């Protein structure tokens, strides 16, 4: 065992000597490993960071939450021309499901619409996300109130002109002034501010509640009716805890088909989107991104492997005389073999460490610049180190074998 530690020490010394004596040649040869490891670990870190952020954004939501609407969250077997003919869900269907559907904890009717501008006296905040809904929406989406309150069922049903605003909207319109009770203008109408949300920060899907406002959906229905093409309605349903989601979906489908008088044999003209299915879709995309990252980075690693092999062949040639002397003094073939193998692995690991250092620097810089946390996990660092060692092992095996098989007499004569 001590022999191998000594061998490892000597190999490290030879590797560092190669870096010192042939800086440019060695660094250029290691560049392939550095770029390859950087590419793979950077892709993995970016994908892991995005996946973590998505999971965090959805962590406060029940993944069994159902979005009933005319659109599908993911790919669909229904042809596009047929999907475009699907009718929107209606407020009447929402009320029918509230009365008849079993296993429901909370249910909300929402309208998705375009961004708007909001005014208060001489100040205007643009590109505000407008989220009209019924009162139970706060129990479905993780909306956290900083000051004031959310609108109640009575205000929701009557379509009162009350509004809850995001933290950035409050800052943009009122600065440090308390906005509760103030009147702001939206859709040319005045709304009374009754609540301000806690700051959420950036969201993966770009729909942070910091730049959003919430008000009763019936206010907008009263203004535009139910057939406005700029409005996309959806019914959000949060099932009770412990409900079998497949049975719940089956009952929901049955209720909707009966209400819409869909004939037996005809397809559903609505989509039931479950958040857990959406996360599975995201996991599939993440897997594909990882695969593509590995595929592209593999070419860089291949180039890096050739670079390490080149260093080792040169090293064998430069140290032919030394190899001959070692063999003449009794060094066995496997001693020479391991000596060059260790050196190749050490050089590859050095190149890999440079690649991971670049990933870490990029992660720190981007996290600070984009307000998005890029995570370089211990698992990815271990993977990078392991890949580097594997590249060194594969690239160094042929030069190491050629060195171990040298005839000592010929090696000493060649090196003289």
UniProtKB/TrEMBL annotation:
Pfam family, any one: MacB_PCD
Q: What keywords were assigned to this record? A: Cell membrane, Membrane, Transmembrane, Transmembrane helix
- The signal peptide stretch is none
Report the membrane topology from the UniProt record. Multi-pass membrane protein
Q: What is its main location?
A: membrane
Keyword Phosphoprotein in record: no
Q: Where in the cell is it found?
A: Cell membrane
Q: Where is the MacB-like periplasmic core domain?
A: 26-254
Domain (ABC3 transporter permease C-terminal) ranges: 295-408
Give the similarity note: Belongs to the ABC-4 integral membrane protein family.
The name on file for this protein is ABC transporter permease
Organism per entry: Flavobacterium jumunjinense
């Amino acid at each position: 065992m001590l022999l191998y530690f000594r061998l490892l020490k000597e190999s490290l010394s030879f590797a560092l000597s190669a870096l010192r004596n042939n800086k440019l040649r060695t660094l250029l040869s290691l560049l392939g490993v550095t770029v390859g490891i950087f590419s793979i670990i950077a892709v993995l870190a970016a994908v892991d960071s995005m996946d973590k952020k998505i999971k965090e954004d959805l962590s406060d939501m029940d993944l069994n939450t159902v979005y009933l609407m005319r659109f599908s969250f993911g790919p669909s077997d229904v042809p596009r021309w047929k999907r475009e003919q699907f009718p929107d869900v209606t407020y009447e269907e929402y009320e029918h499901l509230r009365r008849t559907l079993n296993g429901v904890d909370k249910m909300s009717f929402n309208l998705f619409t375009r961004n708007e501008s909001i005014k208060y006296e001489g100040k205007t905040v643009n590109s505000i996300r407008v989220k009209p809904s019924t009162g139970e929406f706060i129990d479905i989406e993780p909306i956290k109130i900083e000051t004031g309150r959310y609108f109640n069922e009575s205000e929701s049903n009557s379509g009162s002109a009350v509004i809850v605003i995001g933290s950035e909207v409050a800052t943009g319109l009122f600065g440090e002034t308390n906005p509760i009770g103030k009147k702001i203008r939206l859709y040319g109408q005045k709304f009374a501010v009754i609540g301000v949300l806690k700051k959420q920060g950036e969201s993966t899907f770009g729909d942070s509640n910091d730049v959003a406002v919430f008000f009763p959906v019936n206010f907008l229905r009263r203004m535009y009716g139910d057939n406005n093409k700029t409005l996309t309605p959806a019914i959000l349903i949060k099932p009770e805890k412990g409900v079998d989601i497949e049975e719940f979906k089956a009952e929901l489908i049955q209720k909707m088909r009966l209400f819409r008088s869909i004939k037996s044999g005809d397809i559903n003209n609505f989509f039931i989107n479950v958040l857990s299915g959406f996360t599975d879709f995201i996991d599939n995309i993440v897997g594909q991104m990882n695969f593509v990252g590995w595929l592209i980075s593999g070419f860089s690693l291949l180039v890096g492997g050739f670079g390490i092999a080149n260093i080792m062949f040169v090293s064998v040639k430069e140290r032919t005389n030394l190899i001959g002397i070692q063999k003449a003094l009794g060094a066995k073939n496997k001693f020479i073999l391991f000596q060059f193998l260790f050196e190749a692995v050490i050089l590859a690991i050095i190149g890999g460490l440079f690649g991971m250092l670049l990933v870490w620097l990029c992660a720190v810089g981007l996290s600070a610049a984009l307000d998005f946390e890029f995570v370089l996990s211990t698992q990815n660092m271990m993977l990078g180190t392991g890949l580097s060692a594997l590249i060194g092992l594969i690239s160094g095996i042929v030069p190491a074998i050629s060195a171990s098989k040298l005839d000592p007499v010929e090696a000493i004569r060649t090196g003289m």
